[in-house]
Design goal:
The chain is of the alpha/beta class and 446 residues long. Helices cover 37% and strands 17% of the residues. The chain is globular. The model has no long low-confidence stretch (mean pLDDT 95).
């Protein structure tokens, strides 16, 4: 078979692959990966500040994960869990139960993506509790299947009709406080809005099965809530006999400098939803929850819980532990934040920087005083960085937040390399050196 170049693959992709399956910021055609780098079919190397939407936590070709997968492939291409049993599934379930807090009786459900995991939670909670309603947060992104879309409240889904049983409330933040100028009271205002308005009007708490929340909101803009928010929300759940669900699909597995993002808040969720990095690069998701929730209803897929994915998942966790990647995320993530702060001092496009560990958001604005979002400039920065050899995506309700989520194996030297490219990209965009026409085919979220 003749090797195609990037342009040939790009043209065929445009012609053959559904646009409904794409969020494209630049035309990279990946041939292979190693550590925190990707290589295209033309041989060009790219430093990756995205980890494929925070999926490649242990890098793109970790030997421990690769060897475990090869060993399982030599046994069987497929061993399912739906109507059979296998050892890798129970071993991974034991590990996940040991990692998550709570001295209550837990079980694990396995799927293939964060979407199907959240779909399962949204379906089983009402069945298990005989309560009809769910509460989620504006800006939340929980998936692209029917129920998980209904649970989400992201700008990319405004064309979708949300779930009739889902009530969406403001997520607290300090840079763009949803309650006006009450920046210091954002968490309290959010909790009061939920308790004193939502619960007393359209959503009685006695009919709420669960509250689903991200400990750090990712696609909504890389928002770190005030530290008191999650403990206050947990207290609301306990007082009203509501299950607390933490969506850790994107921010879990060491991403924030702790194994789970909610670990920064010292809370105990009833349900933890995992995906993206869990499979070490292979499709795998999981729900770790109270037994009484997961033993209700019907939620299965033929390939869910397959042995290959479970083997990869267990190997990825072992790699995180053996290589001290949670600590590396904390240490190198802190260094990354310091370097980003230096960029903010140089570039007026940067309005705010926020994050934890190797999860950092850089919000771009046209005016720091008015905080006017800069979505056009953001798209141009991302495209120019790609031209210079750096992969970074953008997110946010206004499509103006650079999301920096490198593989957890990244080094300080690689951070310096990426920051230098971002510095140049910001300078070039501010100087008008990136045309509207070159970025136009890559609309990202729009």
């Amino acid at each position: 078979m003749t090797q195609m170049n990037s342009q040939q693959v790009y043209e065929l992709d445009n012609d053959l692959i559904s646009d409904a399956a794409k969020i494209r910021f630049f035309p990279i055609v990946v041939e292979r990966g190693e550590g925190a780098r990707l290589y295209d079919v033309d041989g060009k190397s790219y430093l990756d500040f995205s980890a494929g939407w925070a999926l490649a936590n242990v890098g793109y070709n970790h030997s421990h994960v690769r060897n475990a997968v090869i060993k399982q492939l030599n046994r069987s291409l497929f061993t399912g869990l739906t109507s059979g049993l296998h050892e890798p599934a129970v071993e991974l379930a034991q590990k996940l139960i040991s990692l998550t807090p709570g001295d209550f009786d837990k079980k694990v459900w396995f799927g293939l993506s964060g979407s199907d995991a959240n779909e399962t939670v949204g379906r089983l909670l009402p069945m298990a509790t005989h309560k009809r309603r769910l509460v989620t947060f504006i800006g939340g992104y929980h998936g692209t299947t029917g129920t998980s879309i209904g649970m989400s409240a992201h700008i990319s889904m405004t064309s979708e009709i949300g779930g009739a049983n889902v009530v969406k409330v403001p997520y607290p933040q300090t840079y763009r406080c949803p309650f006006g100028d009450n920046v210091g009271d954002s968490a309290r205002m959010a909790i009061n809005f939920l308790q004193d308005y939502i619960f007393k009007t359209i959503c009685p708490p006695e009919d709420v099965a669960g509250i689903i929340v991200e400990a750090v909101q990712s696609d909504g803009g890389d928002i770190v809530p005030p530290p008191e928010f999650l403990p206050m929300l947990e207290e609301v759940c306990r007082r009203n006999n509501i299950y607390l669900v933490l969506d850790e699909v994107k921010v879990g597995m060491g991403r924030t400098g702790k194994m789970f993002a909610f670990d920064h808040s010292d809370i105990t969720p009833d349900v933890v939803v995992l995906g993206k990095p869990l499979g070490g690069g292979l499709p795998l998701s999981a729900v770790v929850a109270r037994r009484e929730i997961l033993d209700h209803g019907f939620a299965l897929f033929t390939a869910s819980g397959n042995a290959l994915g479970c083997v990869a998942g267990l190997a990825a966790i072992e790699a995180i532990e053996q290589d001290n990647l949670v600590e590396n995320s904390r240490k190198v993530g802190g260094y990354l934040r310091d370097r980003l702060d230096e960029l903010a001092d140089k570039h007026p496009l940067i309005g705010d920087i926020r994050g934890l560990g190797m999860f950092q958001g850089v919000e771009l604005v046209t005016n720091r005083d008015t905080k006017e979002p800069a979505p056009v400039e953001t798209a141009k920065v991302v495209y120019r960085a790609f031209e210079l050899g750096l992969l970074v995506f953008y997110v946010g309700m206004f499509s103006n937040v650079l999301e920096i989520t490198p593989p957890l194996v990244m080094t300080q030297m690689e951070v310096d390399e990426g920051i230098a490219i971002l510095d140049t990209a910001l300078t070039d965009v501010q100087a008008g050196r990136v045309s509207d026409e070159i970025v136009a085919p890559f609309a990202g979220w729009s």
